[in-house]
Amino acid sequence: GTDEESGFMRGLKYYLKKEEAPWGGFSPDGEFPVIHAEKGTLRFYVSDTWEETKHAGGMYLKEIRGGTKVNVVPGYAYAAVDGTEDAEHMLQEARDGFAKKDNISISKQDTGWKIEAKGLGGHSSQPWNGENAIQTLLEFLHRLPLEEGGGARFAGKIEELFGDGYRGERLGIACED
């Protein structure tokens, strides 16, 4: 394929180096000869920047990342946190009490800790067959005593808006046929 979902389209770039560009093309996302409709897609990128703040006795979010393509349920996500030495105990305690603790791993880094969440990747046309690692990570971060500030505020807002799964109730866009 042309890898059009990622925006890279390496296959098409290679083709155009070897062949003349076609006058047009057709790429059905379903069974040929006809698909009468296709599910709608909303593409957006969520990002924020914030200043790191260090407070005595707390833990703060430095980074959070997840997802590879817009039409894939993310199977992996991670966050980086930092804080005092008490943070390690708080992280383990939060993990031990987390319902999906087998999907969370915590490792010490040079500066702080890396929290990794695993899910089950899948195609976005059937999100119920996957398990969103970003959602799992946000649920876990919500349990942590993160210092108030940009990182915690950002993660909290994303969890508030998207933490209900794939239907979009909290966004006010849930619909059905």
Automatic annotation (TrEMBL):
Gene3D superfamilies linked to this entry: 3.30.70.360
Gene Ontology terms for molecular function: hydrolase activity
Domain Peptidase M20 dimerisation: 112-149
Residue ranges crossing the lipid bilayer per the database entry: none
Superkingdom of origin organism: Bacteria
Protein name listed in UniProt: Dipeptidase PepV
Species the sequence originates in: [Clostridium] hylemonae DSM 15053
